[in-house]
Every structure is written in structure tokens, then in C-alpha cells.
Design brief:
Distance between the termini: 31 Å
CATH architecture of the largest domain: 3-Layer(bba) Sandwich
Strand order of the largest sheet: 1-13-11-5-7-9-10-4-12
Structural class: alpha/beta
CATH class of the largest domain: Alpha Beta
Number of domains: 3
Shape: globular
Oligomer: single chain
Number of strands: 25
Largest sheet: 9 strands, mixed
CATH topology of the largest domain: Glucose Oxidase, domain 1
Length: 586
């Protein structure tokens, strides 16, 4: 955009130079000022267009990650599933601590469960990441400028954001109110989040007392915000806890009221002081006191205002499945030994003040509600197709004969723009497809066809570019249950014991791509069905068209006709999937 504006200015200047010798000065002035006015009007219109801003840090081994204290393991990713004779897909094992990167704190981070009878225990000790009401994840961004507090003079100490700063902000702008998201903007992450070894300045060196710590609110500031009924906060500091000795008091002061907040946001300078819609979402870990996540904002009306109003009215639906070891959230594979990494909650060490263990998680990157980027099924450029198993090679020949070249991609999770996974939802009811297969064809899934989509369009209007198409079968609502009943969700269909979930075929994907659709979602476990050949062709079609998928939604039936869908995966560099969370505002 900057390049376009620069080019337009250059052309105006160049044209003026050519006219200068033949046109009277007052006419030149009139032309020039008119051109400037048109240019400014175009720039203003461009800035007014709603845009989605990513406010999240990158998660990667060579960047600051988990809290730098003994017991918290570093972030690790293992590309354990690679295209070749054993699989036509890429996937990863993530060792991911909830305190990594841009992260979400919820009350049980500092408030014990009431049954523990520990000091500070209270009812909000029950509000884990899977229990936070969806409306609380977002609201109107109210940006508090704290840049003057960056780089305090004392090593290992934080400059404090006092309640008087909030009160002064209110005098200049407006009183804070429920539905506001207060964001403390100091520029700390913008300046200090860097690759190692420079990245030690972000977390480790302040904790060691070798450099000044980040600015943060003190407990009185939290109490004041609670009095204004503000329930959601964020900071671009590494933590919402001031060093050296106010971290826990500040956490307690806010979390005891049921607040949630973002730590380690970044890029808050891209937001206006008020008027942007802010949202922070992360994987829905059962009984999680914190979570890795993704922060984003929508800037520009009328969209931002509509989303803010929906959040204030609590008109928000959580569309994500819960991640738990007793639920069927991980791909079980067919037969024996073909499963992917199971979802594991790994205890690290006991937190005596909470009566629970700090934990990390091991999980496949396609666990629970997750992103499917093109690289899941598309290889890098130059890939030797002879590395595929013989049956996959024959499927590829058949696919390319009908649909054209499969193509290649390097679009991993962090390269998928949030604008591709957020947009107005178009929910296509495919419940009529359930029961469409014969037992002799299993493992098989009822295929969602072009005719199904066209019938929807005939009744509800044609699909428009960049809308999010969601296939709603009610499958996960029915079969996503604790094990062993949960075997009916994926394991039984994959092993031919029952029909699979409704899933689109490659023809449906190609049709949607022609409509300008860039993201497709489903309330089934996957967009590929239980039949391995048809599933792979669906993913090839998805990737070759530059489209992405969001899989394993739930509660889609609760969406009204006009709803705005937001999905964001954790921003893991080089990831071939991506656990995340989906919500919708209406």
C-alpha cells in the first residue's frame, strides 16, 4: 500500500514537471492541490477499510519462550511425520508450555480452586481456559500509553503503571466500562523480543537482575480497573507482573475479580487509542490455568464497531472442542501403530500456593480445533514424487489428470494471514448427508458435493469472496465424548466399524475456490473423510488453491444467520498445523 501511494505521488510530480513549462502557475497550483486532495481522500478511504492486525509473538526455539525458571521446559517442535513412503502428510509434535510467547492468563493462574481451602481460594479458581465465557476474550481496545516508563533506571525492577495514569486517560478520552479491554502499551516487546542471544534481554536478564524489567500495573491500578468493571487486560510486557516483588500481588489483585489478560502482546502501536476490536484466544485446555495463544485486532469501522457491540452484549459463541487426555482429540489412525502423537498433559512441579501442578503439553499439531495450512499435504518445491508409497503415486496421477498439477507450498502456520481465517460465516447444513454410505464401503465418509453447495446458494444467496464456509453436520456435537464412547468419533469410522463424518470431496473444494473462498471449516474431525484416497485428494485440492482449513469445530448449530468467524492458531514458526481456538460473534 505504501508502494502504491508512493508511486501515485511520483506520477503526479512527474506530470507536474512536464506541464510546468506550458501551463500558467495558478492552473498548475489548482491541478496540484486537486491531485493532493484526491490522493488524501484515497488514502483516508484505504485507512478506513477494516483490517486485521496480528499482535502476537513468534514461537520458535531461537526466540524467548517459556518463563526462564527451573522446571519450565523450552519450546520444542519435532517434525516427526514427513512426506515419504510412510505418509503423504507433514505434521509435528509440539512441546508447548502455556507460558510461551503471547499468552493468556485466567484466574486459576493465581486463584486456587475453592475446594482447596488455600489462602486466596475463591469461585474464580474454577474458571480455567476451557471455562472462560467466550465474550470475555474480546472487546474495545483502550490503549494506555506507557512508553515513558520503558527502561527504568534500576536493574531487575519494573516501572509501575499507577491508577492515576488510568484516571488521566479517562479524563482525556472517556470513562472505562464493561466490555473494554485495557492494553498497556510501552513498546517493550517491540524493542526486546529478538532472537537469542539478544533475546535474553526480553525475559532472562530482567529476572536475573542484569537489566531493567518491563513496565506493569501495580495492585492499586488493578483494583481501580476492577472498580470500572474491566474484565480483560493486555500488556506488551513479558508478564503482567512487576519485578522484583509485585508480580504475584498484581496478579491476585486482578484475577480475584475474574479478570483475564494477555501477556507478551506486540505491535500495539498499530492500534488507535480507542475504537479497535481486540481479541485474545488460545487452545481450550481442560483445567488450564494459562494458555499459549494468539492476539489480534480489527481496526476500522463498521466491522470493528459491530464486533465491539457483540462482545459488549455477550453475543459470542465458542466453537472449539476441549483438549483433554480422556477425549478423542488426536488422530488415532487405522489399525495398530498408525496413530499420531496423543494429547498429553505433563506435570512439571507442584505450585503450593495453588494446590495444582504447573504443566506443559505434548500434542500433534493437528490436535483438537486446529489449522490446516497448505504444507500439510503439499510438498516443498522440487519434491520427488517417487518418495511416495506406490498407492499414493497412483492416486496423484489420477488427481492430476482430473484437477491439474498438485503444486508445492512453503506456507506454514505463521505465514497464514489472520485475514484468511477470519470473516463472515456461511454455514452450510449437510446433515442430510449422514447415513449416505453402505457398510460394505467402509471406511468411507458421506461426500459433500458441489450440488450440496449450489443448493445452499439457491436458498441463501451466492457465496462471496473471503467468506468462511463452515460445513455443519452436527457430527462432533454427537460423537465427541469421553473415551471409550469417544471411539465412535474417529477410531471406529477409520477401522470400518461405522460410517465416517461428512466431508467435502475435491470437486467441492475446487468449486469453492472458484467462488473466492479461502478458508473452509467443518464440525467434523477433519475436512478429509475416513477414506484415505478421497481425503488426500481433498487436501491436495485445498492446498493447490492456496486455501486453508479449520477442523474439529463444535456448537456450529448455535450460530445465527449473520455471524463473524474468528479462528487463530498459535503462531509457531515452521509448523504444519496449528492448535487454536474458534469463536463467532453475532
Amino acid at each position: 500500500m505504501a508502494g502504491t501511494a508512493f508511486g501515485s505521488t511520483w506520477r503526479r510530480d512527474h506530470r507536474t514537471e512536464n506541464l510546468r513549462a506550458t501551463v500558467p502557475a495558478f492552473v498548475l497550483a489548482w491541478l496540484f492541490l486537486g491531485g493532493v486532495a484526491v490522493g488524501l481522500a484515497a488514502d483516508a478511504k484505504e485507512k478506513a477499510q477494516p483490517r486485521i492486525v496480528d499482535l502476537s509473538l513468534l514461537v520458535a526455539p531461537d526466540y524467548p519462550g517459556p518463563w526462564p525458571a527451573a522446571g519450565f521446559p523450552p519450546f520444542h517442535m519435532n517434525h516427526y511425520l514427513e512426506m515419504g513412503p510412510l505418509s503423504p502428510y507433514n505434521s509435528d509434535i509440539l512441546a508447548l508450555d502455556g507460558n510461551t510467547g503471547t499468552q493468556l492468563d485466567v484466574p486459576p493462574h493465581s486463584i486456587p480452586h475453592p475446594d482447596t481451602n488455600l489462602p486466596n481460594a475463591g469461585p474464580y479458581g474454577r474458571v480455567y481456559t476451557d471455562k472462560v465465557p467466550a465474550w470475555q476474550f474480546g472487546g474495545e481496545a483502550c490503549v494506555i500509553d506507557c512508553r515513558d516508563l520503558l527502561d527504568s533506571k534500576v536493574n531487575g525492577a519494573s516501572a509501575l503503571v499507577k491508577k492515576e495514569r488510568i484516571m488521566e486517560w479517562e479524563r482525556r478520552h472517556r470513562p472505562l466500562a464493561p466490555g473494554d479491554v485495557v492494553l498497556f502499551y510501552s513498546g517493550y516487546s517491540n524493542k526486546y523480543f529478538q532472537p537469542f542471544p539478544a533475546g535474553r534481554r526480553f525475559l532472562a536478564e530482567p529476572v536475573e537482575g542484569k537489566s531493567p524489567a518491563w513496565p506493569d500495573p501495580d495492585p492499586d491500578c488493578m483494583e481501580y480497573l476492577a472498580s470500572r468493571k474491566v474484565m480483560t487486560l493486555g500488556t506488551d510486557s513479558a508478564s503482567m507482573g512487576p519485578l522484583p516483588d509485585l508480580a504475584e500481588p498484581t496478579h491476585l489483585a486482578g484475577l480475584k475479580y475474574g479478570m483475564i489478560w494477555t501477556e507478551s502482546a506486540t505491535g500495539l502501536d498499530q492500534l488507535p487509542t480507542t475504537g479497535a476490536f481486540y481479541c485474545m484466544i488460545g487452545p481450550k485446555h481442560a483445567d488450564g490455568p494459562y494458555s499459549e495463544g494468539r492476539a489480534l485486532a480489527v481496526v476500522g469501522d463498521p466491522l470493528a464497531r459491530r464486533l465491539i457491540d457483540s462482545a459488549r452484549k455477550k453475543q459470542v459463541v465458542d466453537l472449539s472442542v476441549v483438549l483433554s487426555m480422556d477425549l478423542p482429540v488426536s488422530w488415532p489412525g487405522r489399525g495398530a501403530g498408525n496413530h499420531r502423537q496423543s494429547y498429553l498433559k505433563v506435570p512439571l512441579f507442584l505450585a503450593p500456593n495453588l494446590g495444582i501442578y504447573h504443566t506443559t503439553h505434548l500434542l500433534d499439531s493437528h490436535t483438537g480445533t486446529h489449522l490446516v495450512p497448505p504444507v500439510y499435504a503439499l510438498p516443498p518445491a522440487g519434491f520427488d514424487n517417487g518418495k511416495y508409497a506406490a498407492d499414493v503415486q497412483s492416486w496423484l496421477a489420477e488427481y492430476e489428470q482430473r484437477y491439474g498439477a498438485r503444486g508445492a507450498s512453503d506456507m506454514t502456520t505463521e505465514k497464514v494471514p489472520l485475514s484468511q481465517t477470519c470473516g463472515w460465516a456461511r454455514v452450510i447444513d449437510v446433515r442430510h448427508r449422514i447415513g449416505a454410505t453402505k457398510s460394505g464401503s467402509w471406511p468411507n465418509s458421506p461426500e459433500i458435493t458441489v450440488a450440496d453447495i449450489q443448493q445452499y446458494e439457491k436458498q441463501h444467496g451466492e457465496l462471496k469472496p473471503d467468506e468462511i464456509v463452515i460445513f455443519a453436520s452436527g457430527y462432533d456435537d454427537t460423537y465427541f465424548k469421553p473415551l471409550p464412547a469417544g471411539l465412535a468419533c474417529m477410531a471406529d469410522p477409520l477401522n470400518g466399524k461405522r460410517e465416517g463424518w461428512p466431508a467435502p470431496g475435491p470437486d467441492a473444494i475446487v468449486y469453492l475456490a472458484g467462488k473466492g473462498i479461502r478458508c473452509i471449516a467443518t464440525d467434523g474431525p477433519t475436512l478429509g473423510g475416513a477414506d484415505p484416497k478421497r481425503a488426500l485428494m481433498t487436501y491436495w485440492a485445498l492446498g493447490s488453491k492456496g486455501m486453508v482449513g479449520v477442523e474439529f469445530l463444535t456448537a456450529v448449530a448455535k450460530l445465527p444467520k449473520e455471524a463473524y468467524f474468528i479462528f487463530a492458531a498459535v503462531k509457531v514458526r515452521g509448523c504444519h498445523g496449528g492448535p487454536g481456538r474458534a469463536i463467532a460473534l453475532f
